[in-house]
Every structure is written in structure tokens, then in C-alpha cells.
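Long-time lurker. I teach an intro course on protein structure, and each term I like to show students one example going from raw sequence to a predicted 3D structure in C-alpha cell notation. This year I'd like something fresh instead of my usual example. Would anyone be willing to generate the C-alpha cells for the chain below so I can use it in lecture? Attribution to the forum is fine with me.
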Amino acid sequence: MPDESAASDRGRSSAPAGTAAHRQRVVELVNDERTRAGCDPVRVDGRLTTAAQRHSDDMARQDYLRHDAPDGRSFDERIEDAGYPEPAAENIAMGMSSADAVMDAWMSSDGHRANILNCEINTIGVGVNTSGWYWTQNFGY
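-- Reply from a regular --
Happy to contribute to a lecture. Here you go:
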């Protein structure tokens, strides 16, 4: 019989417990990569963080890994719904249990790397849900 307590926890936001350090580490690693590439660092924007965390939580809750949510909303719509006016890009991943591991994966992917190293982007929000390790980076202009 499945463990119902584990199932009932699936998808709950893990943001309050320890994930702030994960999110901060991702931002530090992004800015390290951007500095090496000659870009200015990104700054954290709470609206992008809200959009990213909501998407990570939704992916964990509904067990999917896509930019478009099951309700049909795209990353830019979710970012605008969180109050941020100029969405730029989104990176998502799952399964990596550390900021360093997820950044290694993103930097090894041409599309994700291009988002991180886009010097026109100036803001970031990071979300992580540890139930399945769903990660989201939302970027803005």
C-alpha cells in the first residue's frame, strides 16, 4: 500500500524550509557565469521569485516538466500574472538535489545557457520544490 503521508505532501511548497539557500546559491552561480561572460549580474526580483516558485510547486503537485502549465498558461503569462511587466525567459529542470547540479545541467544545455548568459536580462527569480526537485528560473528585462 502506498505511503499516504508522502502522497499528501507531494507538491506542497517547500519554499520556507531551507530552499532559500538553494535559491540564493543558484543566483550566485548565475552571476558567476554572467561575470565570466562579461555580463552584468542579475538582481533578484520578488515577483519573478513568486512566479518561479509557483511553477515549481505546480510541476511537483501535478507531476509534469514543461514550460506551459496544464492550464495552458505560458511562462510569460505566469510572470505577468505575478506582476512583473517584462518577461524574458524561463529555465526549468527536475531531479537535481543541489543548486550546483542544476546549474551544471543548465550550463550544459545550449538553450538554458543562452538564457543565463543573455546580457540584456537584468532580473531573476528562482523557485525550487524539493518534492521531486523541481527547479524554475524566471528571467526579466
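Some talking points for your students: The longest strand covers residues 87-94. The CA atoms of residues 100 and 132 lie 16 Å apart.
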